[in-house]
Amino acid sequence: MTLKEFIEFQEGIEIGEEYSFIYQNEEYWISQNPGAYYLTRVRGAYTQEFETSEALFKYGTIEEKLLSEIYMDFEW
Asked: Which residue in 1, 4, 5, 17 sits closest to 53, CA to CA?
């Protein structure tokens, strides 16, 4: 994923879109309900919950790495 795609990805989440992506051969989902945003690894259904999309992208991690540090390795 390029930086431009990552920015569009963030904007899409902010307006209600939900996405799945692959990182290091693992599938992840970003989804939401009113008042909550979720980052979920499909295998094992490990989920992190955040109050805002901004918090998800600021504090959400995969393998102890922030999403902003690893987005370039996301695959659709």
From this structure: 17
* Cβ-contact 74, 1 below 8 angstroms: yes
Identify the band that residue 22 occupies on the pLDDT scale cut at 50, 70 and 90.
very high
Residue 29 · residue 44 · CB < 8 Å: no
Q: Of 48, 44, 51, which is closest to residue 65 (Cα–Cα)?
A: 48
Q: What is the rounded end-to-end Cα distance, in angstroms, of the chain?
A: 8
pTM: 0.89
> Looking at residue 13, what is its pLDDT?
94
24 touches 43 (CB < 8 A): no
Of 66, 23, 73, 71, the closest CA to residue 48 belongs to 66
Residue 61 CB contacts under 8 Å (≥ 6 apart), including other chains: 48, 67
